[in-house]
Write a structure and sequence with these properties.
Blueprint: H1 17-84, H2 90-110, H3 115-141, H4 144-153, H5 155-235, H6 249-303, H7 305-322, H8 328-356, E1 365-368, H9 369-379, H10 381-387, E2 390-393, E3 398-401, H11 403-419, E4 428-436, E5 439-446, H12 478-488, E6 493-495, E7 503-510, E8 521-523
Parallel strand pairs: 2-4
Antiparallel strand pairs: 1-3, 2-8, 4-5, 5-7, 6-7
């Protein structure tokens, strides 16, 4: 079987790899089927002879010997009983009768279909029946005294019959032995044939494997190897390297397509080089613009502090000095001004803190969250005490991050949980941590008013508020700042949509070496 594809002008030049493989596989399967059939026949023949020898010939000879032993035991028992008149001698006779019947039943099934063996068995049964009828059964059934007399009278007749029986059993065993010997010779010849057949099969398989390997090397792996080598040269930057096309028709078409792609790449390369310079310039401009925007936000919020403090101070002074001296409308206007100035100051402070995330505080190190949480709880102690909140947490691990930013994260999450509490029940806040795939997943769970599903993504957007400032004070920056801190540390944060009542905020942070060992603690008023 030669799988080497012919030249382009040969009759096989249009054969594809699939067709070559189909022809090769079909031929291989045909050869293997033929040799497999021969091997199967040899195995079947060996198994058949082995079964004949093991299941019929040897057991038949063994049962014939057992019949002889059973009859000898019977003859011994009858002779002892006939000489002595003791009934104890009838026990081996009875056992011999049972053994003879069992062995004869097996011999009948084992000799089925063998005329000579059946004839031998019939002769043994005839003589055995005659001895039983004339000698054994009359003596065994007679009383002791009569049995002795009967045995004396028929001693010669019994000896002649039993000698004839011995001769018949000897011929039977001789015939069975010769048949077993012949079956053994047949088995050895079948095993020799089987071994030679398997040797031939092994040689054919090795030859087929060599031809298949050589055909694949010349027709498929060789052309693919040359094409792959040329493609790797092109990938390494040698775009002037042409791609050869050899082998079956589809491999030649593949080489042609790859060559067309190489030429297209050469054409696009120059265009890419020109575009890269423009993209580098745009990236630099964008980076500079982002830096300027961050600086602008910081400077704007920082520079607004001083004039806003003046506005706030003077409006508060105006309220204290002239409050109650003007009409109600004037007092209301003054209150609006004071409240607006205070809220503007809080908003500017929050914007300043938001702009500093990732820019001012950027000292990544191993952080003990137990200490960070303790400081945050201390900062919120007044709100916790006034609300009657109970905050529990399990052991908290060490993480990699910035201490200041992580303090802001905890403080915003806990203050939200305390602020948006349910009026029907005291706040209960639970903090947990679970390690997953090199990160720690934290969960802050409260029993507050919760967040509607349609707002669970919007709450992380800057200035997004779900309530009026009269119901819940704030600027709408807290969760946006939490999202920025978590993402700056390479984690994610989200609201668990399936948790109720209350809110479950889940976020991840990178893990550090070490594990939490602190027991569960409570923070309550």
């Amino acid at each position: 079987m030669d799988s080497k594809p012919p030249g382009p002008n040969g009759m096989f030049s249009q054969w594809t790899t699939r067709r070559w493989l189909r022809v090769g596989v079909a031929t291989t399967l045909l050869v293997l089927a033929v040799v497999g059939s021969l091997g199967g026949w040899a195995m079947w023949r060996t198994s058949q002879i082995t079964d004949e020898l093991v299941s019929r010939r040897s057991p038949a000879l063994i049962d014939a010997i057992r019949v002889q032993e059973a009859l000898v035991n019977q003859e011994t028992g009858i002779r002892g009983y006939g000489l002595s008149g003791h009934a104890d001698f009838l026990q081996p006779y009875a056992q011999g009768v049972a053994d003879e019947r069992a062995a004869l039943r097996r011999l009948h099934s084992l000799t089925d279909g063998d005329a000579r063996t059946r004839a031998d068995l019939a002769e043994v049964e005839r003589l055995s029946g005659a001895w039983q009828e004339r000698i054994a059964r009359p003596i065994a059934s007679a009383p002791a005294k009569q049995a002795v007399e009967l045995a004396t009278q028929r001693a010669t007749e019994g000896k002649n019959i039993f000698d004839s029986l011995r001769g018949a059993m000897g011929r039977q065993q001789s015939h069975l032995e010769s048949e077993r010997t012949a079956a053994g010779h047949d088995l050895r010849r079948a095993e020799t044939l089987r071994n030679w057949m398997f040797s031939v099969i092994a040689g054919v398989i090795l030859l087929v494997a060599f031809l298949v390997s050589e055909g694949l090397r010349r027709g498929i792996t060789g052309p693919l190897g040359r094409l792959g080598s040329a493609a790797r040269d092109v990938a390494e930057g040698r775009f002037d390297r042409s791609l050869p096309g050899t082998g079956p028709a589809d491999l030649r078409r593949l080489a042609s397509d790859v060559e067309s792609m190489r030429r297209r790449l050469v054409e696009e390369l120059q265009f890419s080089e020109d575009s890269r310079g423009l993209l580098d310039e745009q990236a630099a401009d964008l980076k500079r613009s982002n830096a300027e925007l961050e600086q602008f936000a910081y400077v704007a919020s920082h520079d607004l502090q001083e004039p806003l403090r003046k506005v706030s101070s003077f409006t508060q002074l105006l309220q204290r000095r002239y409050g109650g001296q003007l009409d109600d409308r004037a007092d209301q206007y003054i209150g609006f001004a004071v409240d607006g100035a205070n809220r503007m100051q809080v908003l500017i402070n929050d914007l300043l803190a938001f702009s500093r995330v990732g820019r001012v505080h950027n000292d990544h190190q191993t952080v003990d969250l137990e200490q960070v949480l303790a400081r945050s709880l201390d900062n919120l102690s007044v709100a916790i005490e006034e609300s009657g909140a109970e905050i529990t947490h399990g052991p908290l691990p060490d993480v990699v991050g910035d201490t200041t930013q992580l303090s802001m994260l905890w403080q915003n999450l806990l203050s939200n949980a305390v602020k948006f509490r349910s009026p029907d029940r005291p706040p209960r806040i639970r903090i947990s941590a679970v390690r997953q795939d090199g990160q720690w997943e934290f969960a802050v769970v409260d029993n507050g008013i919760g967040i509607a599903p349609e707002f669970q993504e919007k709450v992380f957007i800057l200035f997004q508020r779900l309530h009026t400032k009269d119901a819940y004070p704030g600027t709408g920056i807290g969760l946006a700042m939490c999202k920025k801190v978590v993402e700056f540390h390479g984690g994610t944060i989200a609201i668990d949509p399936g948790h109720e009542p209350g809110t479950r905020v889940v976020f991840t942070l990178p893990a550090a070496d070490g594990s939490p060992t602190a027991p569960e603690r409570k923070s309550q008023p």
